């Protein structure tokens, strides 16, 4: 793919943001490429030079949003912290769980996830993008941390069951996001409190130590 100039990148970003606003406001089905063209203040020729269809535009909008939720950076920060005991492990897992809960309960993120759930039967690659970029990334980061703690003898876990163990931690957090975020009206979304996040992590650490 030809590398875009700074000017072209800025124009593409303008189209992405316009489409994101319209998708969140009107939904995917009720947003046309014509309305995106008007919102972005670009020509139809310009928008189709970047996106061959509305579906490819939605894919790019979602990909751009999840790229901003970079949990790998969070892991790189935690690598600078020594894990010498259960308190250290608990503190690191609390930071990550807090980051997950705040990022995934964001209104724009929830809005796009609702659109993706509605359109996934017609656009299955969006589901794969979401799974690879969010759940698998989170699980991979927590796995690395737990393996490190296990190798240092801080915890004792069966590494063959790592997938189950990691889900024991992120499952409760995602349940709050599902029940108090995705499945309630937009004006009734409740972010999970730091106290609840801390309790989830403490119960988890106690269960594996």
From TrEMBL:
A Gene Ontology biological process noted in the UniProt record is:
negative regulation of DNA-templated transcription
GO MF annotations, alphabetized:
DNA binding
Give the record's keywords alphabetically: DNA-binding, Repressor, Transcription, Transcription regulation
Q: Which PROSITE patterns match?
A: HTH_TETR_2
As annotated, the DNA-binding region falls at 32-51
- Report domain HTH tetR-type positions: 9-69
Where are the annotated coiled coils located?
none
Q: Name one Pfam family in it.
A: TetR_N
This protein's source sits in the domain of life called: Bacteria
Alphabetical list of PANTHER family matching this protein: ACREF/ENVCD OPERON REPRESSOR-RELATED (PTHR43479), ACREF_ENVCD OPERON REPRESSOR-RELATED (PTHR43479:SF11)
Protein name per the record: Transcriptional regulator
Which classification does the entry list for the species? Bacteria, Bacillati, Bacillota, Bacilli, Bacillales
